[in-house]
Design goal:
two-stranded parallel ribbon; mainly alpha
């Protein structure tokens, strides 16, 4: 993609306004928190204190809208506490430009590295720096700075108390994640009716697993509807694929295929009903005709062989889903104590340790996170120094814009830069125009600021341009409470916002962190994870009695994580104005298809794992050994742009086929499909190397 095309696409993305599901009660609750803290500060304090308190409650409210599995009150308290600390330190350093620039450099460097922990940490940390840049400009003493910091923290306390006292759809994020996972499996079942090779995106299952990780206290309070369904959805998915697959399931046409289509449609109906009940906290209402289909028929078309085994397994699992809606899923220990099953989530010490490990892993020059941190530090400090030298005042607006615009990837940085400027222009013109025409006092300005906050909370997910407009108007009304000159606010904010956005976008172009050169590494990681998943499954066929309970499951989770990492990288690279010298887009798509097929084949085999008392398979052991031997060299070949060699795997498969004769089992048929996928991968990457072309645009 050329630079002109990339800029056009990012501009279109930044200016897009989408229809999104709003949460009016949550938005009203957050706006009430801002209104309460402003009102108390105006009544008991001064307009300047009201501004600081409002920023604290505003930031805490934004933090609670982020997609996080942590309890919302803790997010509000953490955001407000971090903002209070950063604001107090900023006040102490603001008296001298040199000390403030040094403090700003350290703070933005830490903010950039916080993206290593996760997107929620990165967004909340970015918000802290942005708000700190505004609040430290309010005149005060050291003792007054402490008061400002305490008021900011009080804003977070107020938001947290409102969440506790007026809960709106508690466990709503977890309910949505679990319902999305069940709905995704239901949609997969319906698509398999028409396309037995239909792909499945495991992201909803990954989100549901993340949402299911709980602390012991959360596990005790978890609603009954959130127990047990995720594991059932995980087990149903491979059974659906094996039932619909024409190689290991029913034939492509005929009475058996018609029976399979009926089972798939009924399964989709049942899972949709359960998903709807979980999302809205209502009893499960399953249509009786769907349940009648999910019975072993006494007459009519019947299935045979592996398809029959898959159908019986599916009927049993769907029955478990229906039963789970009536009774809690529990596990009774040997001592007779009832223990609820849940994924453990680390507490505060464990979370801090995990965050430090994540930051340590990204502390290398090739890391996009470290490059983002360095870029953010340089842009914020240079923007502050440059805007200080300009005769516009409000020197914090340029670094504030740069901090809010810059992201670790190219597309978000450029799309947010354009949206930020146009949204800011609209917000300050509307807000400044109202202030100029009406000349509101402190209390009317506070009311207008709260209305802007309410609008932003309601429209938070519609687009960054809308959010920027609401925030800009909010800042104008908020600064008019202590009597800020509106004309200077409009002129300075528009000019310095443009300056900050241009500095941020120029910094990414000068010091980029392109994802495109990492595509082969992502492919290699995905191949290695898929290979580990495959060898774990074939080991289970080879030695059923020695199978470890978590061996296949852990390998599956690693394969999903590698696939998700590839898809994120590929999506980012698709929007970047660079090309990969050794991997064309056509080859990348072909390689992705091959690895997706490989994962699907192994998943089909997982649905037919033998029982522990089944006979061992020497042929499966030989195939697993050949695959395990060939994988390290193949992974290295993908990274180094070398041809892939699967000769040892071919020879093992041929030996297996000769010994099986005309009675191939499920494992052998899966091994053949797996070999075809590996050959497709070798062909895709080999063709890319042979047809290497000189790119028209910049390359990495």
């Amino acid at each position: 993609m050329t630079w002109s095309h990339a800029l056009k696409e990012t501009a279109r993305t930044g200016l897009a306004i989408e229809r999104a599901r709003t949460e009016p009660l949550v938005a009203i609750r957050g706006a009430c928190g801002v209104a309460l803290i402003i009102g108390m500060a105006l009544w008991l304090g001064s307009p300047t204190l009201a501004v600081s308190a409002a920023f604290g409650a505003f930031s805490a409210g934004i933090a609670t809208f982020q997609r996080s599995w942590r309890p919302r009150p803790w997010l509000a308290l953490a955001a407000a506490a971090g903002l209070a600390v950063s604001t107090f330190l900023g006040y102490l350093a603001a008296s001298h430009t040199a000390t403030f620039v040094l403090m700003l450099a350290v703070w933005t460097l830490l903010t950039g590295m916080s993206w290593a922990v996760g997107p929620v940490s990165g967004l909340v940390s970015t918000q802290m720096v942005a708000v700190m840049l505004v609040t430290v400009t309010l005149p005060t003493s050291v003792l007054g700075a402490l008061g400002h910091a305490l008021l900011i923290g009080l804003g977070g306390v107020v938001q947290a108390l409102l969440i506790v006292l007026f809960p709106v759809r508690p466990w709503g994020v977890q309910r949505d994640a679990l319902a999305d996972a069940l709905a995704a499996v239901a949609d997969y079942a319906r698509r398999l009716r028409h396309d037995p090779m239909a792909p499945f995106d495991p992201k909803p299952l990954m989100e549901a697993r993340s949402a299911a990780a709980l602390t012991p206290r959360q596990a005790r309070r978890r609603p009954r509807q959130l127990r047990g369904y995720r594991l059932l959805a995980e087990r149903i998915r491979p059974v659906l694929a094996s039932l619909a697959d024409p190689v290991v399931g029913a034939p492509e046409e005929g009475p058996e295929r018609d029976r399979v289509r009926e089972l798939l449609a009924a399964t989709g109906t049942v899972l949709d009903a359960v998903a709807h009940a979980i999302r809205h906290g209502r009893p499960v209402r399953v249509p009786s005709d769907a349940m009648s289909v999910l019975q072993v028929p006494e007459e009519g078309p019947k299935l045979s062989g592996p398809a029959r085994r898959a159908a019986l397994r599916l009927i049993s699992l769907v029955a478990d889903v229906v039963e789970a809606s009536e009774e809690p899923v529990e596990e009774v220990s040997a001592e007779g104590r009832t223990v609820h099953r849940f994924l453990p989530r680390p507490g505060i010490p464990g979370t801090v340790a995990a965050a430090l490990r994540a930051i340590r892993r990204e502390a290398r020059w090739s890391s996009p996170v470290l490059r983002h941190a360095v870029r953010l530090c340089a842009v914020a400090t240079s923007g502050y120094l440059l805007s200080t030298a300009l005769p516009l005042g409000h020197a914090y607006w340029a670094p504030l814009t740069s901090t809010m615009v810059l992201r670790p990837d190219f597309a978000q940085t450029y799309s947010r830069g354009i949206a930020r400027f146009l949204g800011t222009l609209a917000g300050v013109l509307v807000g400044g125009g109202l202030v100029a025409l009406v000349h509101p006092g402190p209390y009317p300005s506070a009311v207008l600021a709260v209305l802007c906050v309410l609008s932003m909370y309601l429209l938070l997910r519609t687009g960054f341009i809308v959010t920027s407009a609401c925030v800009s108007a909010y800042v104008v009304f908020l600064l008019s409470i202590p009597g800020e000159a509106w004309a200077q606010t409009v002129q300075a904010r528009v000019a310095l916002t443009l300056l900050g956005g241009l500095i941020a976008m120029a910094a990414y172009a000068v010091f980029p962190a392109w994802e495109t050169p990492r595509l082969r590494d992502r492919l290699a990681d995905w191949l290695a994870a898929n290979g580990s998943f495959a060898t774990a499954v074939f080991d289970a066929y080879a030695r059923p009695a020695d199978r470890r309970p978590r061996q296949v499951r852990d390998a599956l989770l690693d394969a999903r994580a590698a696939r998700a990492a590839w898809e994120r990288s590929e999506a980012q690279a698709h929007r970047e104005p660079v090309r990969h010298r050794g991997l064309s887009r056509h080859a990348a798509r072909a390689a992705q298809t091959a690895l997706s097929t490989m994962g699907r084949v192994v998943m089909l085999l997982e649905a037919h794992l033998p029982e522990r008392d089944a006979a061992p398979s020497e042929e499966a052991a030989d195939f697993a050994a050949a695959l395990r031997q060939a994988l390290p060299k193949a992974v290295e070949a993908v990274r180094e742009r070398q041809p892939l060699d699967w000769e040892a795997v071919h020879r093992s498969l041929e030996r297996w086929q000769r010994k099986a004769g005309d009675r191939p089992g499920v494992a052998l048929r899966g091994a053949g499909q797996l070999q075809d996928a590996l050959d497709d991968l070798a062909e895709a990457l080999g063709k890319s190397a042979r047809q290497r072309r000189t790119p028209r645009g910049p390359s990495q």
